[in-house]
Design a protein that fits this description.
alpha/beta; 2 domains; 4-stranded antiparallel β-sheet; about 25% strand
């Protein structure tokens, strides 16, 4: 059953010097509980599409709904969780206070037991009294994930959340995110440049074309779960990543041709 419905969505924005046609006639349906990754050439509109799903940008035409509601309605209910490449934590607040911040903005002060529960679940329960500068990059991203999840969002939007991490920390966070998703079955839309990350995490991988961003291909992930992390590839994994790589190369070639 369709949970996120994107219908004929286009977006054009104006810079100081020109109009930029960022997204063009996108149609995409995502089921409840699905983990969907968006990949594509740099500048193709992956983050822009994620922002329209999150009601952070208004499309020029078309629509986005979540569970039959407009994304603006869902955003007002504080039921859209965002995790960005940078954790964006408040440096003067402790980990626990950062986790509670969005709840406080929504007029809901979470109980300490709720903060402790979500922190334990994500693996930072022992650090609630620490400050962001005392944490590693991976730990800061765990705090960001807790902050997004404490309001029990209907959808979790993740924009290259592990892109700034070192390789080992990134792989550990991928494993942790998959564990969290498997236990909560949150609907996740995940932007990444990494084919191996998309193949490891996702139920579906949506490949976007060069700007203006369109849906170039939509692959159901053939790899059975549980999957091998840390680059321990099967032949099936390698074959599927090759298909995705070829699709991305086609998008890159079209980008150079259009330029």
């Amino acid at each position: 059953m369709t949970y996120i419905a994107i219908k004929d969505l286009s977006l054009t924005y104006q810079t100081k010097t020109k109009s930029v046609h960022a997204l063009s006639h996108i149609d995409l349906d995502i089921e409840e509980g699905e983990f969907v990754s968006l990949i594509g050439p740099s500048g193709c509109g992956k983050s822009t599409l994620l922002s329209t799903i999150g009601a952070l940008l208004e499309p020029t035409s078309g629509s986005v709904t979540i569970a039959g509601q407009t994304v603006q309605e869902v955003r007002k209910q504080r039921k859209i969780g965002n995790v960005f490449q940078e954790a964006r934590l408040l440096p003067w607040r402790t980990v626990g206070a950062n986790i509670a911040y969005l709840s406080e903005l929504a007029g809901q002060r979470p109980r300490q037991s709720e903060i402790q529960e979500i922190a334990d679940f994500v693996g930072i329960g022992a650090f609630l009294n620490s400050y962001p500068h005392e944490l590693s990059g991976g730990m800061r991203q765990r705090v960001s994930l807790c902050r997004a999840m404490i309001l029990d969002p209907m959808v979790l939007l993740m924009d290259e959340p592990f892109g700034a991490l070192d390789a080992i920390t990134r792989e550990k966070m991928q494993v942790e995110l998959l564990r969290i998703w498997e236990e909560t079955k949150k609907t996740i839309v995940f932007v990444t440049h990494a084919i191996d990350e998309a193949a490891y995490l996702s139920d579906r991988i949506v490949v976007m074309s060069a700007r203006p961003g369109r849906i170039q291909a939509d692959y159901v992930n053939p790899l059975v779960r549980p999957r091998e992390p840390f680059g321990r590839q099967t032949h099936e994994t390698s074959d599927f990543q090759s298909v995705l790589h070829s699709e991305l190369m086609r998008a890159e070639t079209e980008e150079r041709t259009d330029a």
